[in-house]
Write a structure and sequence with these properties.
The chain has a single domain, classed as Rossmann fold (3-Layer(aba) Sandwich), CATH 3.40.50.300. The relative contact order is 0.17. It is built from 6 helices and 7 strands. The chain is 36% helix and 20% strand. The protein binds guanosine-5'-triphosphate and magnesium ion. Guanosine-5'-triphosphate (GTP) binds next to helix 1.
Length: 205
């Protein structure tokens, strides 16, 4: 899929105020600093469409970006950020869970995890919650450039094996990415394109 346009639409904390366009939507979620905003810039090839920072907690709102006038990418705040209160660190902000529960247009979520890290309880908890809500998701492993090439697939496989060991019957789809080296771009865009096409076909039936 070619990205012909990528436009910031609106930021807010109220799901009710998110754009009402009945078009497919995809959201990026994960721990603070995992690389959600960087990935949006990499996918859209727009350097500073989404705001990024070396310090966690940069994205604080629900940000809608309209792509090709035809679907939305959504940048969300991270969870598990150390500078918020302990209670908040362990749970998910209500406006984030409300977003996932109420957003009918959301066709799939992408849960980002740093490929260098073991499965973290907060990520597993969030994915389990998505599963319980029947919200489709895939995993995006980020920062693959930080590992040696031969370690990349091994780490990803170990992560998915840990998931299917106790909770999940089947591992979700996964993508390996590096925003600094544009790795994984075509695969993610093709995946989204496939879902979009199925959605629009269904609409015209
Ligand atoms: P919050 O908005 O705070 O939740 O963070 P975020 O998940 O949006 O992360 P962001 O995209 O702001 O990136 C955090 C840091 O990781 C920045 O310093 C990025 O440059 C860096 N980063 C993101 N993706 C990659 C990557 O693929 N490779 C490397 N080496 N660094 C990355
Ligand atoms: Mg961000």
């Amino acid at each position: 899929m070619r990205i012909k346009s990528a436009d910031f639409v609106v930021s807010n904390t109220q799901v009710a105020q998110c754009p009402s366009d009945p078009i497919p939507e995809y959201a990026f979620i994960g721990r603070s600093n995992v690389g959600k905003s960087s990935l949006i810039n990499m996918l859209t090839e727009r350097k500073s469409l989404a705001k990024t920072s070396g310090r966690p907690g940069k994205t604080q709102l629900i940000n809608h970006f309209k792509i090709n006038n035809n679907w939305f990418l959504v940048d969300l705040p991270g969870y598990g950020y150390a500078r918020v209160s302990k209670k908040e660190k362990k749970t998910f902000q209500k406006y984030i869970t409300d977003y996932f529960l109420q957003r009918k247009q959301l066709l799939s979520a992408f849960v980002l995890v740093d490929i260098r890290h073991e499965p973290q309880p907060i990520d597993l908890k969030f994915m389990q919650w998505l599963g319980e809500q029947s919200i489709p998701f895939s995993i995006i492993f980020t920062k693959a450039d930080k590992l040696k090439p031969n370690a990349i697939e091994r780490e990803a496989e170990a992560y998915l094996a840990a998931m299917t060991k106790d909770v999940w019957e089947q591992a979700p789809p996964h993508f390996i990415t590096s925003s600094t080296h544009s790795v994984g771009r075509d695969e993610i865009l093709e995946y989204i394109d496939g879902i979009n096409k199925a959605y629009y076909q269904e609409q015209t039936r």
